[in-house]
Amino acid sequence: MAQADISFDYPDQSPGFLLWQVTNLWQKIQRKALSELNLTHVQCALLAGIGFLEDRKETVNQAALSKHVGADVMMTSQVIRTLETKGLVQRERGISDPRAFSLSLTEKGRALAAEALKIVEQVDGRFFDCINKHKRNLVDVLNSLKVNENGI
């Protein structure tokens, strides 16, 4: 294979490749931990997002939720239907816009979200423990990258 004109001699010098590898590892560990609750990480994030918005008395519909968690609107809609089937989320047609659904956690959903968040935080604590002194810097860098999504 001909050598492409690339900026790095080795894959572990590429920030994008490293981010992809670390993200895959982190997701694998989270997936395994949440499997005991029969939840995916996306389901957990959406449950937590609904709870967060509800606790702050903010509008909780699929568009607001997908924006809050940074997820695709169509994927959010599909996962919300699954969570509704599991009895974790209630969807009600909006009064001002009947196309939009208002979302809320059921008691079962709120309890499961709290349990899942404890697991996620425990896993995060163990996963990021090796960079404890640099954790704040990592969060700052990741937030900078997230804000820059439109700058590409």
TrEMBL record:
<comment type="similarity">
    <text>Belongs to the SarZ family.</text>
</comment>
<keyword id="KW-0238">DNA-binding</keyword>
<keyword id="KW-0805">Transcription regulation</keyword>
<dbReference type="GO" id="GO:0003700">
    <property type="term" value="F:DNA-binding transcription factor activity"/>
</dbReference>
<protein>
    <recommendedName>
        <fullName>HTH-type transcriptional regulator SarZ</fullName>
    </recommendedName>
</protein>
<dbReference type="InterPro" id="IPR036390">
    <property type="entry name" value="WH_DNA-bd_sf"/>
</dbReference>
<feature type="domain" description="HTH marR-type">
    <location>
        <begin position="1"/>
        <end position="150"/>
    </location>
</feature>
<dbReference type="GO" id="GO:0005737">
    <property type="term" value="C:cytoplasm"/>
</dbReference>
<dbReference type="Pfam" id="PF22381">
    <property type="entry name" value="Staph_reg_Sar_Rot"/>
</dbReference>
<keyword id="KW-0804">Transcription</keyword>
<dbReference type="InterPro" id="IPR000835">
    <property type="entry name" value="HTH_MarR-typ"/>
</dbReference>
<dbReference type="GO" id="GO:0003677">
    <property type="term" value="F:DNA binding"/>
</dbReference>
<dbReference type="InterPro" id="IPR055166">
    <property type="entry name" value="Transc_reg_Sar_Rot_HTH"/>
</dbReference>
<dbReference type="InterPro" id="IPR036388">
    <property type="entry name" value="WH-like_DNA-bd_sf"/>
</dbReference>
